[in-house]
Description:
Bound molecules: zinc ion
Number of strands: 15
CATH topology of the largest domain: DNA primase DNAg catalytic core, N-terminal domain
Mean pLDDT: 83
Distance between the termini: 15 Å
CATH class of the largest domain: Alpha Beta
Shape: globular
Amino acid sequence: MRNQSRLGRRPRPEPPWAATEIICDIYMRYSEEFVQRVLEANNLQDLISEVTRLKPARQGFMGRCPFPDHPEKTPSFSVSESKQVYHCFGCGKSGNLLTFLRDYHAMGFRQSVEFLADRARIELPKSDPEQAAVEDQGQQLKRKILAANAVARDFFVTQMNERSRSYLQARGLTEATIATFGLGFAPEGWDGLHRALERKQISLAVAETAGLLRQRREGTGHYDFFRDRVMFPIRRVSGEVIGFGGRILATGEPKYLNSPDSPVFSKGHTLYGLDQTARFIRAEDQVIIVEGYMDLLALFQAGFKNVVATLGTALTFEHALAIGRMTKNVIVLFDGDQPGQEAAEKSLPLLLSAALRPRGLVLPENLDPDEYLLARGAESLREEIQRAPDLFNQVLLHWTLQYRGTTTEKAGLMEKCQPLFEAMKDSRLRELYLADFSQRIQVNAAQIKRFFAETRSSSGSHRPTERKQIPGQVPPEERSDGEVLVNLKQAPKAERLLLCLALRSRVQLDFILQQNLLELLFHSGIKQIFQWIRDTYRQEPEKFDKLASLITTRIDDPGVVFEFDPSNDDNEELEAEVLRDCVRRIQTDAAKFAIENLRQNLKINPTREGMEKLVQLQKDRLNEYAKR
Ligand SMILES: [Zn+2]
């Protein structure tokens, strides 16, 4: 009865899988062949080895699960080198190169493909020759800027001295945090970095475009842009430095200075810290947004690792979209001062229109997060975060502090709140907020809605709920022709197991194909994937080992590849027995289904042929049983 229990077992949490959007993202630019070529040129085990130690094991490699929501002492994370897939037997996460980059490094699919192509030194396909020349130059410049930034980062790290170190220590940062975030120091002179760049043969023009050097106003030559500052490298999720933030050490203005925008860096699109924090954000399904570098570092060090910082700028819609790819649950943590309050208010419509669920936390006594932690400790902050009210209600409360309930005040507040309501993507949420608002200003909801409708029509073509078109962002219509992930989560266990077994050995796949089982499969997703496997395998049998990895980008539950757990059983005989059991189960279910179908039809339309067929089907079933 071992097999029975095997079929009945499915211990797997549902992974957060926002996939349709991701898969469309792949196909909108790169051909499937290109994506496959890039995947084949990279090694999953190398990539994962960068974040967790893998040791050779029977079926590939084993290590501790690298995902932050699954701390463990004994390794249960397995990587199959031949199949290029991973699976954690502890938490159930599984997938291939692309899902790993998504879940660990928070990369979109397109970004992942470009990242992997770059790793394997594969050139990106060009759309048309003229465009190609321009793109080529652009790409080259970007690479050069990243190289210049890398030299600058190394230089700043070597320049750390007593003074900068003791400043950071006074702000409560540990050596570990300083190292994790790669902090450094830009010395006082005017040409320290300049000379370091020259030594590494970095073009000064490139360094100028990168914002590292400035042209002298008088005479010729360049000088260092950052001087006497503690330096915070701003990194992509993939680790490359795209810009810097610098905090002045002595007194002076500006207190914080960022790299100017460049071909690789845009303040309005970039969130600080994501290279270290994205995996925590995904794992905890919540993000804390703060305003500055130091706030982020203080929180991270205190154990709040699901955090990002805007670069001292206001939150933008692009920031909100980037956050929305990781989680919907947002805590906006702003300084308790007036500008902090205003920033929180301004971020509200942006967060709502990106369909996020923002809560707001304004710290008491004008403390910033860094000071708060020093004064009151992490536990107290954790409680504040748990108690944080909806940002909408908080903003509303602030707007109604002086509220006395006059008619003009009511009209004024309704006007002020209208854009917020129109930004809300979730209609259920909108109704709930409307109820709150209605109570707060003592105007009934129907009246408020009428007021909104009239304001809208009197302001003409104003259609505020339309989403802003973001450059580089593809409108939904164009995405709709992309592929949608095949749903396997609801598939019957026997069929999931059959799929897994088919991918485990050629002999088994051949056997399944010979049995004509595909016609009998009940679940359309499994059927679809099997048909694809059959076609691919027949055309290119040498690709057998790649099949598992190839299907993981097409299905909603890559764990299916590990449905049969090899870590406990290494017994080929047992595996063959499980396969036979699956086949039998599928045949029996299909027969039952056919009989039931025929019965229902006979009720409506009793024919002689139908009756005979039913008798025949039942006989076949009995014969099947007799054979067993
Ligand atoms: Zn795990």
